[in-house]
Amino acid sequence: MNNSENITRRPLKSRDTKWAGAVASWLARVGIRPNVISVAGTVFAAGAGVCFWFTGHTALGWHWSVLLMLAVCGMQLRLLCNLFDGMVAIEGGFRTKAGEIFNELPDRFSDAFIFIGAAYSVPEFAWTHELGWAAAVLAVITAYVRALGASMGAGQQFIGPMAKQQRMAVMAATCVVGAFAPIWPLLARMIPVALTLIILGCVITIIRRCHRIAQEMESKK
Predict the structure, then answer these.
(1) Which of 13, 118, 198, 214 has the fewest CB atoms within 10 Å, i.e. is most exposed?
(2) Cβ-contact 91, 21 below 8 angstroms
């Protein structure tokens, strides 16, 4: 791995852990390639989105709670795939010339699947549809601004407050809390609240990244 690779990769503490290195090494040994892992992450995200959609067609009860916890599993597996595809590609030596397509494009679909699914998770709340779709669009724009900075020569801007890991953390925590909605029905409304927070956070993140990119470009001679 060289310095340029370090700069363009999202800084993750988990990448340096022993368990992550062991799993990535195993994946490389058994022949699972990074592009396959990237696509698998999108499949897990789609599964999370489907679980969200089904919650909107399920009465509050244990089925609701199970669906939300399955959505959490799908989102976490999506993040693990995001971690391991890069590790297998770079540390495992299986980086391909077309790898950036698989690294970036599936992630954009993953965000859309999750947030659009969440848009239909609480139909009794009037604005859930709009909030979910807005979160999906803004998540994609947030990632676009990061890629734009790299294409302009300003480097990858991973600053938040609502980067990918933070978006998934908010949704996962919301699902865990929402799983208790059969006991306290008002908790079901945590999902539109979370979508609102993600929307606001994405707007701030987009502004911060654009500002950082502009500063980087203006400082160049």
Answers:
(1) 13
(2) yes
CA distance 10 to 156: 8
- Assign residue 56 the CATH number of its domain: 1.20.120.1760
Answer yes or no: is 67 within a domain: yes
Q: Which DSSP category does 155 fall into?
A: -
Of 141, 181, 140, 139, whose CA–CA distance to 162 is shortest?
Answer: 139
Structural domain harbouring 194: 17-219
Residue 110 makes CB contacts below 8 A (sequence gap 6+) with: 41, 42, 44, 45, 46, 78
DSSP state of 11: P
Residue 6 lies in a domain: no
AA letter at 30: V
Confidence of residue 5 (pLDDT cuts 50, 70, 90): very low
Q: Is residue 173 assigned to a domain?
A: yes
What pLDDT, in 10s, does the model give residues 129-167? 999 999 999 999 999 999 999 889 888 889 989 999 999
Separation between Cα atoms, residue 167 and residue 115, nearest integer Å: 10
Counting the structural domains of the chain, the total is: 1
Residue 200: count other Cβ atoms within 10 Å of its Cβ: 13
67/8 Cα distance (integer angstroms): 36
